[in-house]
Amino acid sequence: MLDLDKLNLLGKELNFAAIGALKARQFDELLPILQKRAEQKRKTVFEEQQTEVRINPFLLMDTAESIIVTATSYCDESSVFMENKPRYAGELARFARGLDYHQVVHYQLKELAEKLQKLELDISWRAFVDTGPLVDRYLAAQAGIGIYGKNNCLIIPETGSYVVLGYLIINKPIQKSVGGPRPLQSCDGCGKCQRACPTKALEEPFQVNPSLCLSHLLQQKETIPHEMRKRMGQRVYGCDVCQEVCPHNENAAKTKESKMLEIPRLPWIDAAHLLTLSNREFNRLYRSRAFGWRGQKIMQRNALMALGNTNDPGAITHIKPFLHHQRETLTDMARWALKELS
Question: Where do the H-state alpha helices sit in 128-200?
Answer without folding.
Answer: 136-142, 192-196
